[in-house]
Amino acid sequence: MTPTQALPNPLPRPEGELEALEEVWKRPRGWRFVTVVNNNWIGVLYLGTAGLFCVFAVILSLLMRAQLTVGGNDILEAGTYNQVFTVHGTAMMFLFAVPAVEALGVYLLPAMLAARDLPFPRLSAYAFWAYAIGGFFFFLSLFWGVAPDGGWFMYPPLTGKEYSPGINADFWLLGIGFIEISAIAGAIEIIVGVLRNRPPGMTLGRMPIFAWAMLVFAVMIVFAFPAVILATILLELERAFDWPFFLSARGGDPLLWQHLFWFFGHPEVYIIFLPAAGAVSMIVPAMAGTRLVGYGLVATALVATGFLSFGLWVHHMYATGIPSLSLAFFSAASFAVAVPTGVQVFAWIATLASGRPRMEVPMLFVIGFLFIFVLGGLTGVMVAVVPFDWQAHDTYFIVAHLHYVLIGGMVFPLLAGLYYWAPLASGGGLRYGRWVFWLLFGGVNLTFFPMHVAGLMGMPRRVWTYPEGMGLELWNILSTIGAGVSALGIVLLIADLAKNFRMSSGGTDSNPHKAGSLEWLPQGNYNTRSIPLITSRDPLWDQPGLAAQVEAGQHFLPGTVSGRRETLVTSAVDAAPQYIAIVPGPGWAHVIAAVGTAGFFLALTVQWVMISAAFGAVALAAVLYWLWTGTDLGPVRGPADIGGGYTLPLYVTGRDNLGWWAVVVLMLVDGTVFGCVAFTHIFLWLSNGPESWPPSGTTLPGLMAPAISAALVAASAAVVMLSDAVLKRGGRWAVAALLLVALALLGAGMGLDLQALWEAGVRPTAHAFGASLYANQFWQLLHLGIIAVMAMYVVARIAAGLVGAVRRVSFDVVRLFWFYVVGQALAGLALTHLFPRGAGVA
Amino acid sequence: MNSQNVFDTAGPDGDRLATLAWLLFGGGLILFVAVLGFLLVALYGAARVRRTLGNPRFIVAGGIVMPVVVLTALLLHTLGLARALGLPMPGGEPPLRIEVIGHQFWWEVRYPGTLPGGGIVTANEIRIPTGRDVVLEVTASDVIHSLWIPALHGKIDMIPGLVNRRTIRADRPGAMRGQCTEFCGTQHALMAFMVVAETPPAYEAWLDRQRLPAATPPQHEMGRAVFAAAGCGGCHAVRGTEWDARIGPDLTALGGRLTIGAGTLPMNEGTIAGWIAGAQDLKPGNRMPSFANALDGPELRAVSAWLESLK
Asked: Which residues form the Cytochrome oxidase subunit II copper A binding domain (chain B) (predicted)?
């Protein structure tokens, strides 16, 4: 960075600048509040909803504890109990844990990075509403007795059509659909936000640990969620259309589900834990009044955890009969992940040792976290030991372990964060923290510690009752008492929030903990008045007077230069200022889109196909409206002075544009799903053995048809390239015509392949071979549909005069995604036509 | 005999796993106390000690070196242990092969080669001789189940379309409980079984009794007739009669087993009658209908008495 003018700029700010800034960032009042998109408000709504869902799921756990207090109890009958434990687990993982940490990121990151907002506020708001509506219906399914009852892990064949004929399983498969969408939307937001919306001077090496943690979290979502997305698509295809992916009688394999599910499910644990660990890395230095010891080690540990967590999924499958060599590998990998976690624990201890820790409520929760989480981590090492796991697996020992890890590793840090960051959001302080802490700390240990014993005494998980005479009575009674104590703690926490939490932008003292990170700068709806130039990891400690300078508008972008909401975009590594991005304000489109999305999935669950299609059309229309009106605004004004000697444009195209980054992340998601499609082929091939893959009697189309398909698909990419060249020369209608030609080529290529496959007699229902070929077709045709919408959108923008040689972000985004779709289609053709030929002879 | 305690072992592999558990608990306790100790010192220790803990080298020592050393040692130990588990007994007889098939919500147990052209079939109880390796070949007919006999060894999943093997050996005679540990539907909780280990002569004697077809002495003719009239043979087999259906458990020697309803109730004439009359009340959602309305008291008593006599 080479600023030509020194900051802070001591000159007085022009009159009306602050008022204009406040005006554009004003929150909508009254019933229009639902249109709010600002992260300060969406973040709180998001956290509050996650908390509410957590309370619902806790109520279910109390029902289970009541049932299990004594053997042979009949408070819940077997079928109901199975619904209750399934909804409890599913809700805690999908409706509470992931959304809660995501919400914490949405709320805190802009403040911590001194950004005005996240780069795509309507995307976060959309993700929130889709999640909130879908989540409520998911719980409601319990009241109609149609809640899922196959466990949160949903193993087929139990969850297949034959053994779960009702819509309960569909509620899980489709109900989780929009949670996946909203998690991925949030991940895109967080990755782009952390990498591109940091304040000038905040290089990656100066980034707060929480931002590191959220970055790793979001990248992990990008690579983990696709596996469960594909798994749910495959199981729903099997249930709805009888495509036998998991039915061994027709070449399927139940273990395929387990691999896909745990490839998501194990990283999921770290997806939940890492943001919480990041929060602890912020709280501990503030409470100890000193820098985090081992910043580099901790940041590396977060990244290493992210990597390693993808190599552990088989440790949920030790008892499935997997060869012992692979077991040894996965056991070693499971041990290895203990190292980065150990690094963080010792870094926190070192930080506490080098400062003067204040025993305030957040600190109590951090100590409680360390106690519970370390114990859970140690039992985690135990269950990574293959022979021990054979005994502990699927018993209450695991129930104890996972609750120690998740409550210790996520809930306690979250509560530490709640009490730590509450002053940011609330005028009034919270008061009952110490009571809440002791009730929860005592209650959680009393509930879950005895479960270790019950498990080793032979109590399996997911049982609605147990016989007398196994010696389980005492331990279950203790657990139930503990659950009651924990529930009191939760009631007190709710009372504290209800009585003492008053939503407002900041209290009188902007930095009550005397912390070093930027969220403690004076805040408004627009976050900081001006965006600071950062020269250290702990700016509020190392840059004296920063708060006053920022508040006086003496740093970057102290107002609005376009009369709209803006945020500063900087480069990913060095955080050098690049451009001013206009971000959208309140609106209805994303709310309608969320209602449409939730309605689409829910109506599909109860098999109202037409209503579902109508909801889907509404959602699509709303998304298109929001893109049309809110994105690719073009250069609304010339470059503007942001202070510090920088004059930045308000519109950039190409690789610097935020939209381009979002599409790249989306391509990584889609590419990972496609990778899982390929994994499905390879896994089923190995499971069937080369001699029966493809199964005897299968005729594949000759290589002529796929060769023509490939040529057509590739030609479509070439035509898109040509349209790019024409656009550069100012062409307009020629660009539109070329895009339509390219679309026709892509459609023809994919259609020809589908037709060839069908005419060769390959059917998706006959055998898992055909099913996996058509799963590939399904995924490719879905992309054809997306490209068709995108192409028509750009053509319409061209017709409306909104795309040209300068204003071309919409075109660029579509072009980039088009190339991806073409690449994926070519890989798909190879998978369909070349893999079986190679695999058959291998 | 209802114990499913991991530490209540009855064979060499069960012993090894119990020893391993104690090793892990001991090691875990030491590490837990150490970490909490460091935390306390960091919070309340003397300034000089705290300075030492505040050094980044402490993080490397505690967070990297210590776990790498401990976990490498543990990995080597468990790899060695894993190899020792299920090793054939030196100089022993060739292992006995038993097939176990999981059904919603009961266990089919087959002894291949014990009859000409086949083998005896029983349910919800695995009889084994002591001092001899037994290979359990497990699979499932419907959904995934998991077989667990904590006294002898860890779990092995029963997966449709796949045969998994687990070698067990009991050193001491006795009955021990096992249970399904993979969630398999409504009555997963009540899918248990017994393992009965007997001395080799006692086992051979039991096997000889099992080989005999079911007998119907005159006092049980009515019971047999009720069985026929109620259509029990539509699901159950009784060897030596015309019934050979395989939907439910084989009842050829029902009365000799320790439990009824896959570990739901102890076996006697009364519980058999109770089960026939109210299977859906005792274990709602299992595949056996309740016959309380179809059979009157004398009929119920007659059929239960006959079944109880089959041993």
From this structure: 93-209
